[in-house]
Each structure stands twice: as structure tokens, then as C-alpha cells.
Amino acid sequence: MMIIKKGAEAHLFLDFISGKKVIVKERKPKLYRIKELDDNLRKQRVVREARLLHSAKKAGVPTPTVYLINLESTSIIMDYIDGKTLSDLIKERKLSREELVGLLREVGKLIGRLHKEGIVHGDLTTSNMIVSGGKIFFIDFGLGDFSRNVEDLGVDLHLMKRAMESSHYDVFEEGFSAVLQGYRETFEEANEVIEKMWEIERRGRYWER
Description:
Distance between the termini: 48 Å
Order of helices and strands: EEEHEEEHHEEEEHHH
Largest sheet: 5 strands, antiparallel
Number of strands: 10
Helix content: 40-55%
């Protein structure tokens, strides 16, 4: 196996099974926690992430296919998605205005499908979206959860807004409008969640004073 990314919560490895590229995501032990507690938490989170990936796919959101969960090593073996992150595509500045708006509108539709099924991604950024074969794949549900609570959905959408503001400030206004447009197209309760997102934004500004 070859390590391709070291994260705070997990390491990603590239491996091959029967000549096919796969990703092995292995959750790191937290040495500051009691070992038994840490082992149980990591196992729970591995199972939850695999369930989230599967549920998202059932909801019509492209995600890597999960092949195996190894509770002993607290790892998930999943499909390798060959493509570019949406973040990189936007930063390359090679997309036409129509292509950019179209992609971000599709992102909004996919977020709407997640939220409609009570799936909170937990880390909605363009770095966690891979464009491949004409589809946008959502990856890394490690911070995700199942929830239909409007506050949780609003926080999820607010994370996307803040990520776009910081990483893609030059196209943020039109780009995030496209995300919200797509979001409304696939989620009947979109306006309630969007209002909650703005409320969360106002709260944040108040506490920053």
C-alpha cells in the first residue's frame, strides 16, 4: 500500500485488489483517549461512514463503492475515483461561466438529495467532491451523521458557504447562488434550511464582535 494522504482523523492509502485501484481509509488511534473507548469509537465511526456512503448512493448521490469494512484495523476499502477535485477544477480557471454554474448547481442538487434523506455530510467542501466521467462524486463522510434536524442541515449548508467564500471568493457570489438554486430543486424543505443557514451566519457574526 502507498500512503496518499495523512489526515487528522484518518490516513488514506492506495492499494490494488485483483488489479483494480482501491482506497483504504484507516482511522487513526487517539492516544489521549482510553484505549478501549477509542477502539469502540473508531469502530462505530467506520461503520457509520460506510452506512453514510451507501445511503448517499441510494439517494442518487455518486459516492465511492464500499467493498469491505475491517473493524480490526478500523478501515474501509472503497472504490478509487479517478478524477479531479472540484476545488482544483475551479482554481484552474479553465471552466466557462456556464460550465462552472452548471457544476455548482448540480452540487446543490446533490446536497439536496442528501438532506432529503436525512444525511449530513459534515465536511461539505469542493475538495471533497471529485468530478469524474461526467459525474460529481461526494467523498469523505468521516464527520457525517444521520439527522433531519434543521439546525444540523443548516450547519452543513453553512460549511459549504464558508468553504466557498474562503477558497473560491472570486466566483463565490454567482457560484453559491447556483448551489442554492440546485438545492431548492431537489429538496422541498430547502427554504427552511437556507433560512436556518443565514440565522447561523448571523449568530457567528454576533459572537465575533
